[in-house]
Design a protein that fits this description.
40% of the residues lie in helices and 6% in strands. It has a four-stranded antiparallel β-sheet with strand order 1-3-2-4, covered by helices on one side. By secondary structure, it is mainly α. β2 and β3 form a beta hairpin. The chain has two domains: 105 residues, Orthogonal Bundle (Arc Repressor Mutant, subunit A), CATH 1.10.10; 156 residues, no CATH class.
Length: 288
């Protein structure tokens, strides 16, 4: 049952939430109404959608939205002793001040949270959750001839290493590796001297942030292409190969009046709107 709750103004300026699809950001706000007085909720996607988005056809599935919210540490998802899925808003107490709260029935359960060892929900707030499949360095490098224009991409194998203790460090290392893979493919395919665009020589903080922000869109693209959401070196090769086919995005066509000398760069090509536009074009032409 929805509850009367407040939302702080800074909620809408939260950088990680704002990098997600709009419907996912909206769901995060709705979960503050849906959760019980200690921040716990039934995480069955069908029930969450019925309670939080009853009159909408979301552009992103509720299941995917819950996953993305878990990836940035806003919520945590786990399985209860009854076999059902449950969630908790990780820093619920920072968002809400509930007067005379009703004790949570879910909190009292034995729950195994994803990305952690079994626990009775006593987890440190400083350890945001990570999915097992998003941990560790990718072992697969891509072996087929699939591309953004292929309709027969085979699913990629997933590794499932034991989750390390420091999940925050693991997430940063994972983003660093994805960024390295993206930079290597970009420089090899598009940067001078082979291509026409400026090289990406250093993965500084703005470039790492650009990679992190594009991951929700990249994962959706990988799910369509490969059958899973793991962002692999093969994905970046296919994506930048598609970029190379476009005269403007590959730097062969000058910009508009007053911007004749401007060319796309690494950060520009990682904008979610640019990636989605090129992906839509590739899928349309592949289906033609």
């Amino acid at each position: 049952m929805a509850r009367i709750r407040t939302i702080k103004p800074e909620f809408w300026k939260h950088e990680d939430l704002s990098a997600l699809p709009e419907i996912t950001h909206m769901l995060a706000a709705a979960l503050l109404n849906h959760a019980d007085d200690e921040g716990y909720f039934n995480a069955n996607p069908a029930l969450v959608r019925a309670e939080c988005l009853p009159l909408r056809e979301p552009s992103v599935s509720t299941q995917d939205s819950l996953r993305m919210l878990a990836e940035i540490g806003f919520i945590q998802i786990g399985q209860g002793e009854d076999g059902k899925r449950y969630g908790r808003v990780v820093k619920f107490d920072e968002h809400q001040r509930v007067n005379r709260p009703t004790p949570s029935k879910i909190k009292a359960m034995h729950i195994v949270w994803e990305g952690s060892m079994p626990t009775h929900t006593q987890l440190s707030e400083a350890s945001p959750p990570e999915r097992n499949r998003e941990q560790g360095r990718e072992e697969e490098q891509g072996t087929g001839n699939s591309s953004l224009r292929s309709e027969s991409s085979a699913p990629l194998a997933l590794t499932s290493p034991n989750p390390p203790a420091d999940l925050t460090t693991t997430r940063a290392a994972r983003i660093q590796q994805i960024a390295e893979d993206a930079r290597e493919a970009y420089n090899r395919i598009l940067a001078k001297p082979a291509g026409n665009l400026p090289a990406c020589s250093v993965l500084n903080k703005p470039r790492l942030k650009a990679v992190e922000k594009c991951l929700p869109t990249a994962r959706l693209m990988c799910k369509t292409l490969f059958g899973n959401e793991r962002v692999t070196p093969k994905f970046w090769q296919d994506y930048f190969d598609e970029v190379a086919l476009d005269d403007f995005h590959a730097g062969r066509q000058p910009g508009g009046p007053g911007h004749e000398n401007w060319k796309p760069d690494f950060e520009f090509l990682l904008r979610e709107t640019v990636m989605a536009k090129l992906f839509d074009r590739a899928m349309t032409e592949a289906a033609a």
